[in-house]
Design brief:
The protein has a domain of 91 residues. It has 138 residues and is an alpha+beta fold. It has six helices and six strands, in the order E-H-E-E-H-H-E-E-H-E-H-H. A hairpin with a 5-residue loop joins strand 4 and strand 5.
Length: 138
């Protein structure tokens, strides 16, 4: 599923503004209810349209040992956004936007509210942009 990171950021901000004090576990989906759990899970499932089973089905991700044999299977429910990209579940259109989304996810996963996660990610991005202007990097 290809996501436009500019639109994703807009939608994530909207979700956080609607529930600024909400905190959640660091799983995309609540496995008991099969409903979105974390902020990024709400975006990926309710807005981007990725089925919840994509995250909870243990046959979706196979762990392969160095000899090429499948050693076990696991779900993607508690993996980071980078893993979803590596596995081809999500494809992002903009690295800078993706960094912001990953910051939100990491901060929220540490127990911060959705509103605080967005605010903190904005501050981190602002510092990053300031350094980029100073040093000519991103």
């Amino acid at each position: 599923m290809k996501i436009d990171t500019k639109d994703a950021i807009k939608q994530i901000r909207k979700l956080a503004a609607e529930n600024p004090d909400h905190t959640s576990a660091c799983n995309y989906v609540n496995e008991e209810t099969n409903k979105p759990e974390c902020l990024i899970g709400h975006y990926l499932i309710n807005v981007a349209g990725i089925p919840p089973e994509t995250f909870t089905d243990p046959t979706k991700r196979q762990i392969v040992d160095k000899d090429g044999a499948t050693t076990r299977t696991t779900s993607f429910n508690d993996y980071g956004l980078g893993d979803l990209i590596t596995e081809g579940i999500v494809e992002a259109t903009n690295d800078k936007g993706l960094r912001w989304i990953r910051e939100v996810q990491e901060i929220q996963d540490q127990g911060w509210s959705w509103g605080e996660a967005v605010k903190s990610a904005d501050q981190i991005q602002c510092r990053r942009d300031s350094r980029a202007g100073r040093y000519g990097t991103t």
